[in-house]
Amino acid sequence: MRTQPRARASSDQQERPDISVEPKTKVWVEHGGEFVMGDGGLSLLLAIKERGSLTLAARDVGWSYRHAWEYIRRAERVLGVALTTSVPGKGTNRGGVDCLRDQCLEDARPASRAR
Predict the structure, then answer these.
(1) 7-to-4, 10, 26 alpha-carbon distances in Å
(2) Which of 79, 20, 32, 69 is CA-nearest to residue 48?
(3) How many other C-beta atoms can be found within 10 angstroms of the C-beta atom of residue 103?
């Protein structure tokens, strides 16, 4: 049984697919070839600086407290310096986190804006 060949559509009748694209980039920081921090980590540090609390900062960026804590500690291990320090508190002033490395934040902002 032979099948009939399909009729070809003329070039003006061909449906052209929508192939619009949007370029994306990811920015991250490495030290000694090891990953330190990406955009999410930078957002976390900026939120810590603004809010003074890892709990609130993690909530602001949509991370769990545990993930945020481990992310910061891993970055500190790679860098060999503390990025934050705990601020003790009692009662209604329950303490928080103070971001120590303002220069790191300032250095990283241009890269995050370039995207």
Answers:
(1) 9, 9, 46
(2) 69
(3) 8
| Domain boundaries, position 48 | 34-85+97-113
pLDDT in tens, 63-92: 999 999 999 999 999 999 888 887 776 555
Which carries the bigger pLDDT value, residue 85 or residue 10?
85
Residue 108 tokens read as 């990283």
Please state the separation of Cα 88 from the chain's center in Å: 28
Q: What is the pTM of this model?
A: 0.65
In a domain, 14, yes or no: no
Overall number of domains in the chain: 1
- Does residue 27 sit within a domain? no
Q: Exposure string (b/e) for 49-81, b if CB count within 10 Å is 16 or more? A: bebebbeebbebbebeeeebbebbeebeebbee
Output the domain CATH number for residue 81. 1.10.10.10
Compute how many other C-beta atoms are within 10 angstroms of the C-beta atom of residue 111: 14
